[in-house]
Amino acid sequence: MQLKHFSGALLVLTAVLMGLFFSGCATAPPPNVKSNTCQIQKIAWEVAPQAEITAFSCAMGPHGGEDSLIFTAGLKNGSQQPTRFRLTIFLDEMDKAVAYLVPTSGKPPVLAPGADATVKIPFMKHTVMPNKIQVLVTTVRADN
Asked: Looking at residue 127, what DSSP letter applies?
């Protein structure tokens, strides 16, 4: 009888530890995310190795005369080549996404090695902070 109790407790302990491990992995930012002050519970990060997120925040505020959910992201080119990035934020629970090119303009529209840019990404008329989001940063070809 004592062996059954021990194996049951071990099974419960293992399940709890696995749950903590997997929930921690889903929210832990990669090394190239340097600052995140956004209070969203779960953020799934997928950031290109050439990019570095220097700042990431979220807040409710006015945009275009409407209350909106606004993300602010600082992005730095960590590579040795001029690069353009696409920053996409997915609101999983709301089936919405917004993508921005960084930088938005220029001839050619690229960030020089070591340069950074900050973008504000509004979700118009969204007045509820989501519980989880996905942040995706990829490189894109820079056309003149």
From this structure: -
For the stretch 125-141, pLDDT in tens is 888 899 999 999 999 98
Residue with tokens 């690069």: 83
What angle (nearest 5°) sits at the alpha carbon of residue 60, between those of residues 55 and 61?
100
Place of tokens 């050439």: 50
Q: What is the pTM of this model?
A: 0.76
**Residue among 49, 105, 48, 115 nearest 82 (CA):** 115
Q: Does residue 26 sit in helix, strand or coil?
A: helix
Q: Are the beta carbons of 5 and 12 closer than 8 angstroms?
A: no
Q: Could you tell me where the beta strands, DSSP code E, fall in 1-144?
A: 42-47, 51-63, 66-77, 84-91, 96-102, 116-124, 132-140
Q: How far, CA to CA in Å, does 87 sit from each of 11, 38, 63, 84, 90?
A: 42, 16, 19, 10, 10
